[in-house]
Fold this protein.
Amino acid sequence: MTERDHHNLEGLARGLGWASLGLGAVQLSAPDMVRHMSGVDDSSLSRVMVPLVGVRELFHAAVLLGSRRPGPWVWTRVAGDVMDLTSLGCAVSHRRGKRRRRTMTATAAVAGITAVDLYTAIRAGRRPWAYGLSLHAAITVKRPRDEVYGFWRDLENLPRFMIHLRSVQVIDQRRSRWIAKGPAGKDVEWDAQIVEDRPEELIAWRSAAGARVRNSGSVSFTDAPGGRGTEVRVELRFDPPGGMLGAAFARMLGEHPDQQVRDDMRRFKQVMETGEVVRSEGSPEGVHAIRQLRQRPAQPVMSGGRP
């Protein structure tokens, strides 16, 4: 799949999100009209189900429009479509006359929507490089490009500024073993390999086959304008531990993956420019998203009861 195809697919997924938003709004604001148009206005059960379906559509809209990679979330719409087709199929067998025709028309419309949803979901699943999350970050480091590249190329330096990494062990010029902090305090380990290495320009890597955490990434190095050092741009793609549900839970805890990557890049800048991560008594871990939620003004370190 080309990059243009990818953008078109994501655009289609977002379009489905807007469609869900519109459907949900109508089903909640005018449920009687929806019941009449679908031919189920004589059913007491429909008085409960139509608003519930509206709430479900708003959920679809939230996940599709709120995700940077909405393609995989289209499967939630497919599941909803199957439920709707099942309900309408049962309704058709119990309707007569005009109500039956309206219900059949509604069933045909939902079937068409299902086809679009299924096409989008399958296409999103066929991308061999499709990951749950795709993250980007950039920063300017006031150091020469060869020095910045050399520091990153020694992969064992990465845990110095990537706070989620416990260690990276270099096996050979291409292969390495990574250990990261996982959910519930359990470590996650995988092997990775460098797939492209252009000195002072680009390093790209991906996890080896069978890795528990499927991921890939790249970092590029260019001269910053005006001789201000080196521009470093990072792109990461990975399936978070626990899947998309795990990523959503992490956001609730203040550990949004985008924020983590930006924090990592700020720590990288500090290490390159000062030799260490800047810390304070109020934030001893350095810049860390969840720590900032309860961060307080720094106080002098007490020694023997006196500052």
